[in-house]
Amino acid sequence: MITRQKSGQLFDKALTLFPGGVNSPVRAFKSVDGVPLFIKKGDGCHIWDEDGNKFIDFCCSWGPLILGHNATSVREKIEQTLQNGTSFGAPTALENELGELIIKNNPFVEKIRFVSSGTEAVMSAIRLARGYTKRDKIIKFDGCYHGHADSLLVKAGSGLATLGTSSSAGVPESFSKETIVLPLNDREAVLKTVKEMGDQIACIIIEPIPANNGLLLQKRDYLEFLRRVCDEHGILLFFDEVISGFRVAFAGAAEYYGITPDIVSYGKIIGGGLPVGAYGASNEIMSHISPLGDVYQAGTLSGNPVAMAAGIAQLTECLKPGFYEDQEDRTKNFVDKINAHSKANGYTFEVFTVGSIFWLAFSDAEVIRSSAEIRAESMEDFKKLYAILLDKGIYLGPSGYEVGFVSKAHTAEILNEVAVKFCAALDELFQS
Length: 432
Ligand SMILES: *Cc1c(COP(=O)(O)O)cnc(C)c1O
Hints:
Elements lengths: L4 H11 L23 E5 L2 E4 L4 E4 L14 H11 L10 H12 L6 E5 L2 H16 L3 E6 L11 E2 L9 E2 L6 H4 L2 E5 L3 H11 L3 E6 L13 H14 L2 E5 L11 H6 L5 E4 L10 E5 L1 H4 L18 H14 L4 H22 L5 E5 L2 E5 L16 H14 L2 E2 L8 E2 L6 H19 L2
Parallel strand pairs: 3-15, 5-8, 5-9, 9-10, 10-11
Antiparallel strand pairs: 1-2, 2-3, 4-12, 6-7, 11-12, 13-14, 14-16
The structure holds pyridoxal-5'-phosphate.
């Protein structure tokens, strides 16, 4: 067992300062055993906690660190930018640089606006969709996460009601009734809803690669179907690419699948480990944002120069030829090894993957496309496996509903070593 003495002391202190001892809930380790590990430093694919334990990290700050921890080019660009101060609240050349880098390499965005988080990007873009279409309702899907804005903390209502109910206290029912929640991969549900009220729906928002509630890979033709439905009803197709953007391809799942959304949101990787989000669309749609248009949106620290610098450095690496192919190859190789071992031994366990994202599923289903297909009981197995993996020096996000991320720093050699340890962990779990 790894020692968590210092982490335990720090967590005790944190409990006196922050609700649940954390500043974002999943960090509290509530779905797995023990106190959360307090991380002292990271380098490449490794992290070290305050007790000196060293791990190979597959959480990668929940996705942003596609180059791994403390990447030299990112750190140097941040350090260089810092020499000139940290924030001006006035335009800087760095914003132009990052904006141009993205727009030049992304056919889906003609104009972009930088904000400071994924939540802020989605929230602002929903307002834009409503302002642009002059419609109030939105469709979202059960099993997709879009940050914690009020209109998106909504879950499916019971029975016949297609209107959502809030999934958090503090969200008025009057807000949540503007959000319609449908199951993923269910064409009938979409058709029925747009038939009834298509002319009231501003946008259909989806994670084109749903990766916040397991990895619920959708078929390409389902996404195409959504594109057609939107076109037929004057609804905007909103791809929330906060995870998938710059992850599965530079221009995200839209590029990966070759489907054109009307609005996109980005976060995570875009900021190179600093707080950046963004949303983008055509010139026409984006012209509705203030100061050009009547949809208001602003931010004191939006386009922060240090954060822009980190984004520029990271995305420049991502644009190098073969970057995404290499990410995907290494990940697939790693996953294939584990799956082969699991299958050979008849374990009820499979790793699902796309690009450099993977998800551990205690299932022998060939595909899992909706949240209803995830067995809640399987999270007990995840908890046991999590403890075994930690002991072997492998760190994942502390919840079985979360995905893992492979970075450029996870070399083929390291992934081979991890695969061996991982298979041993599965043996321990299933043979005990
Ligand atoms: C992480 C995430 C968000 C929220 O981003 P924050 O930066 O945590 O506010 C929104 N949408 C998706 C798809 C995400 O993965």
